[in-house]
Amino acid sequence: MKARVYWLGLAVLCSACAAPSLRYKQDIYKLAGRGEFKAAAQAVETKHRKAYARQDRALAYLDQATLLHDAGEAAQSDRLLEQAQQRIEELYTVSASQTAGQLFINDLTRPYRPAPYEQAFTYFYRAMNFLDRNNLPDAAVEARRASLFLDNLRGSKSSGYNDDPFVQYFSSLIFESVGQLSDARICRDNALHAYEKLGGLLRVSAPEFSVPKNAADYGEVILLHYNGLLPLKKTQTLQFSWDRMWGILSAAQEGQGLTPQVQNALRTGFMGHSITLASPVLEAQPYTIVSSFVRGADGQVYRMQKVADLSAAAAADLQARLPGMWFRTIVRAVTKQVAAEQARQAARSAAKDNAVGDLTGLFVNVLGSALEKADTRQWFTLPAEIFMARLFLPPGRQNIHLLFRDGYGKIVGEHVFEDVQVEKGGRIFLHYRTAS
Fold first, then answer.
1. For the segment 145-165, what is each residue's pLDDT rounded down to a tens digit?
2. Residue 426: alpha-carbon gap to chain centroid
3. Which H helix or E strand runs over 369?
4. HSE (CB half, 13 Å, CA atoms) of 381?
């Protein structure tokens, strides 16, 4: 009896667990679409206690940090990214109560842990924030951390997203800049291999940049254009027959360790029934700009090449997670039905009244359904894609024009990097974000 009371108390306590709503994300996107990144970051800070669960503060840090980076507030962005990374490292030890919450209430009871592609980009954004402040040594530290993280990821996963070609390529550029040429070569080789292996999954191919023979006589500008809006996770409900649910349970990796007794209990728990499952699905968000190019002070045009597609990475990650999500949802459905039946029988016996028992069982069923929520958490302020150009320009101060095209090839906007100091034999990194 005490166990049932504890479970009910835990359910009520966790009923407030929720992910940032679709409407909240879209409101932030409206500000970003107008280029008001600082205002968008302020909105995240103002609403984070209401929009994010207390256990998901790392996600709030990430969402705000990206917008501050886009607004040119590198120091503030980096402080939040550092806090997020510290929180992520703490979450590698998950308590038994959090795991139990996943199996009895919903996935939102567990603190947010970023997808592998999201974690890889924490190192990228921190490195860019250091570069914005002319701190190349600390940028190299983040490149090293990214390289180690991706090495470990390749060692732990044999398929799916197990490396990031762009983050590897970007790290190689930083290693080159600090003279760590052996590390640069290793990262560049890893990047090219990852582009070849994961190009189809991530919808991107290896960039082809030409380096002039007399490159030492010029200064190099690495220009990054962050573009678009990441697809947003929302909840969809799916009706499953038991035959199909059992197939999911049997195929899901999380269900492979179940004993035959537990499998039989699950099989009979819903025999002849069907249930409605709540799961996340990605919804594309519209934006106009689809490509960009650069025009130098001398009138030369440089093509921006797509080097990363985070929309594809998000889709690949969700696809990989769905079997486990469905498995936990079905187990919870069986558990909640058993709890409702136990409550019905206990109330019927205590009150000697079938109506009281039925009402109690109905209440527990309604509570269980109300607690079943899809996990729609994501680092949603990331761009949908990243374009890149490597410009070799004469030394001196000059303006660099970044122009944007829509799907019809029409120029729909421009940003000018004014008075850029290009030094002979040097390298600088510039970035700009569009979300419209």
1. 999 999 999 999 888 999 999
2. 34
3. helix 354-371
4. 30
